[in-house]
Amino acid sequence: MSLTPMTNVKTWDNRPVNMTCIAEAIPNATIKWYKNGYEIFDNDVYRVQLSGGGISKLFITPTKSIYDEQVFGIYRCEATNSLGKNFINIQLDRATVPGLVNDIKIVHIAPTQIIFKIYNDLFDGGIPIKKLYIEYYEKYDHQNVQTKELPFSKLENDYIIDKLKPFTIYVFRFAAENEVGKGQFGQERQLQTKSETKPDKPEFHNLPFDMINRDEIISPFPHKFTVMWNMPPDNGRPIEYFEIRHYPILRTEFGFTPLHEPIISKISVYHDEMTSKTLTKLKSDSYYRVELRAYNSLGFSEPSSIIFKTPSSDFPDQDYSMDELNEGRLSFPIGIIAAFIMIFVILILIIMDLVFYWLVMMIQLLNFEI
């Protein structure tokens, strides 16, 4: 009987349901179903199906008149052959909508968002919860009620309500939904967002960690590296730009030591999705540190930082001055600049000679006509 797939079955709203019983026996066993000590026979509610190979199914079609009184409870599947008998109990329960969602843990309150958790002891009605519903509105604006749907997780993940107004009192209430339906909303809860401030710290994403040493970030290329990050909460004031500082560092037994001043780049904000920046003119087989922070009219965020390593290269590295690195372009060698000047002077002389020749011809033509 150990192969019986389910020993607890759920149904609701007069939905038909079936139970499967598997009896492994030699010789083959005769299978019968019982409820409250009475054998079950086919009728308007029950139908027994023998599939052979020691498998029997009990189909139950509830009716409103007997739904609560007779259908729910313990069913007994009993298998008998010449060597004896064995049985297994299968419980049929009625599933309901989830219970009230009142036990909320507030994780973090910011100027434009609130982060919270739902405790795992929430009553699910016998069916796993699929969604959470959050209704919220400003305390003094009852007409503008907003609803947000979020997928539910038993892992106590963080849930985020964003795009709120700074320094504003909001009224929240929560409800859960399973396959049966949506439960009632729980008690209302008032929370006030914080006042405007500097942006939150931006976080790097999609970092190429080494396959062997998973704590080390390895650039795919020896002379460039692309960093990506998501737009952090602006905390009430729009983010104007991001600042990236990167510089080579020397790895020692005591940690990392900077080798020169950081190279600073500013990245404008174009949208609310992931932003990226490719760092170029890097040296191969070297360690670099990258620092990233966001800026709004109230100041800079706390910086995020990473350390990455460039792989070795088959080609020699070029030497760049600090001015060249900061400008993001190479200076031309003096010889090339001198050549360009000489060509420019020659072109000017040729043009002047042509103009002089044209003037002489015009004067001669005028004298001839006179």
From TrEMBL:
Keyword entries, A-Z: Membrane, Repeat, Transmembrane, Transmembrane helix
Pfam families found in the cross-reference section: fn3, I-set
Span of domain Ig-like: 1-93
Sequence intervals crossing the membrane: 332-360
Domain of life: Eukaryota
UniProt cross-references to InterPro entries, sorted A to Z: FN3_dom, FN3_sf, Ig-like_dom, Ig-like_dom_sf, Ig-like_fold, Ig_I-set, Striated_Muscle_Regulatory
Listed GO biological process terms: anatomical structure morphogenesis; cell differentiation
Domain Fibronectin type-III: start-end pairs: 97-196, 207-314
Name of the protein: I-set and fn3 domain containing protein
